[in-house]
Specification:
284 residues; alpha+beta; four-stranded mixed beta sheet; three-stranded antiparallel beta sheet; 7 strands; 48% helix; 10% strand; disordered C terminus
Length: 284
């Protein structure tokens, strides 16, 4: 029952959780913190988030992107006995600062009172009732590859990257709209098979669906749809009232309405990428 409830909580990702936030915005926030504090290094979780927590994993990626963008060093927290630590630090001399930092997370942990017999001891109780003890030594691994992996989705792009992605999508839409307007009336064979209508429709479907699945971006799909409509209208306007480009026949009607319908459907379907969290490691 407990495991099942934990799984349900992961599936019901809160809308205000860090994993639901735009990664580009989180990166920008971390970059702002680096600049405002004058930091020359960033320390965060390892790529597993410490123990797999999705929010911690997101923090790792955001901090790593931000450190790279600000050209400062990046290090990850690792277990002292992991064997891949580049540096270990005795934190007993600053135990009071560590305690003060942990006490800021009252919604997450309940810190045990100071033990008069051992003032350097520090422990806390997690929400699920497990007591954890702070180590006397902390270990860190420096980023051997300061270049983080390239963003994989629209949400992971920086602000400039998003603008560029939308601009590219708009250009793709304009090109597709131009080609479709010129070729959608083409037929082949004695039966006049509407090869142009079929190919242009498949092209619009492939482009919009592919972009939505690859980058999980409604903005890019909308840009493609706008580009197709603009290109079509411009070419028809240039041709005038007697333009042979879009005729009042089946192919003409399909090309007039199909791109808009396809783009609307692709824009409307929900983002199902969160389903991957059902099998993601970690605990809440």
């Amino acid at each position: 029952m407990g495991a099942g409830r934990a799984g349900d909580r992961r599936r019901r990702r809160p809308v205000d959780s860090l994993t639901a936030a735009d990664l580009g915005e989180v990166v920008d926030d971390v970059r702002a913190a680096i600049r405002s504090t004058g930091a020359d290094a960033v320390v965060s979780y390892a790529d597993d988030g410490g123990y797999g927590h999705p929010d911690h994993v997101r923090v790792h990626h955001a901090a790593r992107y931000a450190a790279r963008a600000e050209e400062v060093a990046f290090s990850m927290i690792v277990a002292p006995d992991s064997g891949d630590a580049d540096v270990t630090v005795d934190v007993l001399p600053v135990r009071a600062k560590v305690r003060a930092a942990v006490e800021q997370y009252r919604s997450q942990v309940t810190v045990d009172p100071v033990d008069p017999a051992d003032p350097t001891a520090l422990s806390w109780v997690m929400p699920h009732g497990v007591r954890e003890h702070a180590p006397a030594v902390e270990a860190f691994r420096h980023d051997a590859d300061p270049q983080p992996p390239a963003p994989q989705t629209y949400a992971e792009m920086s602000g400039q990257g998003k603008v560029a992605a939308v601009a590219v999508a708009l250009v793709l839409g304009l090109v597709t709209g131009g080609l479709g307007t010129v070729t959608h009336q083409q037929t082949v064979g004695a039966a006049a098979f509407p090869i142009g209508m079929v190919i242009t429709t498949l092209l619009v479907i492939g482009l919009t669906v592919g972009i939505r699945l690859l980058y999980r971006s409604r903005a890019m799909v909308a840009a493609i749809g706008i580009g197709i409509l603009v290109a079509t209208q411009v070419l028809v306007s240039v041709g005038g009232q007697g333009s042979p480009l879009v005729l009042a026949n089946a192919a003409g009607y399909v090309w007039t309405f199909a791109p808009a319908v396809i783009a609307a459907l692709v824009l409307a379907w929900p983002d199902l990428s969160g389903l991957r969290s059902r099998t993601a490691p970690g605990r809440e």
